[in-house]
Amino acid sequence: MKHILAILRELFSKKLLEREIEKMVMTGEQVLSYSAYGEADSALRAAYLFHAYWASQSFSGCKRVIDLGCGPANQLLLLAKLNPQTHFVGVDLSEDMLKLAQKNKESSGINNVEFVADDITQLSKLADKSFDGVFSSVALHHVSTEKDLYAVFNQVERVLSGPKALYITDFILLKNPKSIDYLLELNWQQPELFRLEYLNSLKAAFSLAHFKKVHELVHTDFKIYHTKLANFLMIMKTPSLTTEENMNFSQLFNDEVRKLSIKNLQTYRDLSLMFRVSGLK
Ligand SMILES: C[S@@+](CC[C@H](N)C(=O)[O-])C[C@H]1O[C@@H](n2cnc3c(N)ncnc32)[C@H](O)[C@@H]1O
Question: CA of 173: how far to CAs of 42, 117, 124, 127, 133, in Å?
Fold first, then answer.
């Protein structure tokens, strides 16, 4: 009953919430806690696995993929492990994040990843047409304004060449403040710092209309999938390219999924269901 009420409340609210800008870069304890949570058997890890699976379908055959706002690279390292033929470049503005990303890379033994300190609205250290894929996970809402969001996509268009694979996921701005309370309540078991980051991210999210405008800036064949009813998460994705069963990928992926507890496996399944309903295949 509580779930139905929450969905109806969001569906019938007319106006979007006002965006509340989140502090751009994460530092210190925030960084350590975020990384530890993404490394452990957690809801965040389940989300990383879900995105790694679907992003890999779009990046099949890519030579160089950039990750915008890679943070501690838990997500990026998973993607790199599953796609050893691709070279990944993680970009972040937070020195603390990049230090930890480097440490996480060294302890993982994964070599097809490097990191660059840069602002994703500028990508000043990256050459034109130097990538064929772009990835980003829950980072775009950190930029301050709509203008900055579009600056990111102008840079994406500049650094990409070829068929241009894209996989970008982020939160979507909700309509009713109680929807935010509801989503936080669903995550009551998660660590406090993570819940705070989740709250701030939901408040800072851009609207679906903002993301739809990206079609005018990035010239490639991507679709936007978003959770229906409670519309809080979106994925921009170019078509899946995998044509044949890749045994190595399946084995590595299944090994990672097996590490999830039943509770977090359920989070993975919930995400799969929400996006299958929205047409992700
Ligand atoms: C919530 S974390 C996401 C990290 C990672 N993508 C993940 O999925 O776990 C957002 C990251 O974006 C970075 N960030 C925010 N604004 C940025 C900017 N303008 N340029 C580069 N990185 C930025 C932050 O430092 C942080 O590491």
Answer: 24, 28, 29, 32, 26
Tens-place pLDDT, residues 166-198: 999 999 999 888 888 888 888 777 888 788 888
**Total domain count for the chain?**
1
Residue owning the nearest CA to atom 20 of ligand 1: 119
| 76 Cβ below 6 A of ligand 1 | no
Mutate to test the pocket of ligand 1, among 22, 23, 26, 51 (most ligand atoms within 8 A of CB): 26
Q: pLDDT tens digit string along 83-104?
A: 999 999 999 999 999 999 999 9
**Domain containing residue 184: CATH number:** 3.40.50.150
Does residue 75 have its Cβ closer than 6 Å to ligand 1?
A: yes
* Ligand 1 geometric centre to CA of 268 (Å): 22
Q: Can you point out the beta strands (E) in the chain?
A: 64-68, 87-92, 113-117, 131-137, 160-171, 223-226, 233-237
Residue to substitute in 34, 51, 74, 93 for testing ligand 1 pocket (most ligand atoms within 8 angstroms of CB): 93
Question: For 51-202, where are the E strands, in sequence order?
Answer: 64-68, 87-92, 113-117, 131-137, 160-171
